[in-house]
Structure formats: C-alpha cells, structure tokens
Amino acid sequence: MNLAIPSVLLLIFCLFQNVTSRPSAVNIGSIFAFNSTIGKAAKMAISAAVEDVNSDPNILNGIKLVVTLRNSNCNGFLGIIEEH
C-alpha cells in the first residue's frame, strides 16, 4: 500500500508527458534573382543571418536553420521549377 500513491503518480506522469518530438531543422525557401542588386544583397544578408542564428544555440534551442536559395533569373515560374 505504501507504493500505491507513488506508483499512480509515476503512471500519471508517464501518460501525460509531452511525447512530441522537436524537428532537427527549420527549412526556409527563398527565390530571387541573384544577378540583381537586391538579389546580391539579399543573398549575402540571408547567408549572414543563417550563420548568426546557427552559431547561437539559444536562438532556436539547438535546432538548425536551413535556407534553400533559388535563382529566379528574373522569372518567378522558372525559379520555382528549377532543379538544383
């Protein structure tokens, strides 16, 4: 009988603990013209931001930020279907 209450508490704890898993990465896509002035600046800024976020484990609590950059070549449709 002495173990009944701790056993019930342990059972409740095990049943209601958070079982969701955290992703290992956050994926973001970006499409813009690499040969434009804005595209060149954006590409450098995005790369620097990703490096800053991934270098500090407190920002995303150890989850890696991954940005996929695609060149639109000034054509949004072709930028979407382009394969890397």
Automatic annotation (TrEMBL):
Alphabetized UniProt keyword annotations: Membrane, Signal, Transmembrane, Transmembrane helix
Cellular component terms per the entry's GO annotation: membrane
Origin superkingdom: Eukaryota
Annotated ranges, domain Receptor ligand binding region: 42-79
Signal sequence residues: 1-21
Classification via InterPro entries: ANF_lig-bd_rcpt, Peripla_BP_I
Protein localization: Membrane
Pfam families with a match to the protein in the record: ANF_receptor
Record protein name field: Receptor ligand binding region domain-containing protein
Species name: Rhynchospora breviuscula
